[in-house]
Amino acid sequence: MGDQDPSDTLSEGEMDNRKVSENLTLSQFSSTVRAVVRIRQKYQAMKKRRMELSVSKTPFFSSPRSTSPKIFTFDGVVGDSSMTTSKKKKKKKARVLFPNNSSRRVPPTMERSRAKNCLVLLCVIVFLQVYNAIENLDDHVLKYDLEGLEKTLKREVFGQQDATEGLLGHLKDYLSTYVHSKPLVVSLLGPTGVGKSHLGRLLAQHFRSVVGEQLVMQYFVLHHCPSEGDLLLCSESLTSHISKMVTRAEEEEKIPIFIFDEMEHMPGELLDTVLALILTHDNNEYLNAIYILISNLEHEEITKFVLQNSSSIAVSGRARLSKELNPLLLNSLKKHHSLWLEAELLPLTLLEKGHVMECFIDEMSREGFYPERSHVERLAEELSYYSVGEREFSRTGCKQVVAKVNLL
Q: What phi and psi values does residue 325 have, to the nearest 5 degrees?
């Protein structure tokens, strides 16, 4: 042993060291393998658990079919419903959070606003006022019996339906209330014999019966003021008489009516007096009045217009007169006096032969004669006419009817 080579001894030590290192390397490799195996086992376990969970969550109807026959039950459905109900039960309700420094109490109810009650009360009051006003309007119109006046005009006035309807329309609108901002002024214009004065007499007769004799004035210029030297006296007398009437009407809460006939003969001074009375706004009683102005002013213009437009007037009626004739008449009337600027113009047209025959029948019946048709036609033939196509317009209207009937 003493003769052993030292190099051999060193080689054995190195070999021992090499064995130790090999053992270390093997142990490290085995630990790595064991770690990989553990990870793989853990992964397989997790995969298996997921597969079991997915199989348990699949619904009954989505499960794969099997070849072996099975009995249908509702176990799967019941299980699903129980799961959904349990989930619903587990769902927590929303909590109401209160501030830490306040007590938990129900908030006080809001008090009902009094403004709403006041608004409802105001609406009821306005409704009652409007309803009462409408009832009063009806009562005010009924007091003047305009329906009776309409029947009288249809029965007594011939060939002037458009003019009478226009007059009744103005009267109805004005008499529907008692408070007005200005008087109603209506001007009846037309040739001789078309029924202007007759219409004025019917109006005076009707309103005397409904408002009284004291509130109706029928003024004939040539009769009440025949002399031009008495114009000042006539003006003062007219002003005084109208003032008394409007004062009386104000006390009785009625509307007076003033009918002026033969206005074409009224002097300028009297026209100024009438215009001043119409435009008076100092006293309220002067605003509630009706003025009817009757004249044959511009009768030539009316006759010319009717003869030139006889065919169209027969179709359109008063609408054509108001649209085309009234502006022409107003341009001429305002040159005569500015009084007509305040008036509503109602032109009365020429009467046809048939209207004249109606006048004869009515007058003969009044006088006690039997209105035989042939006799009436013979009397109507004695008058003169304007011939326009197949239509005949009387030159004098019904002016001569009374005289001819008196000769029978």
A: -80, -40
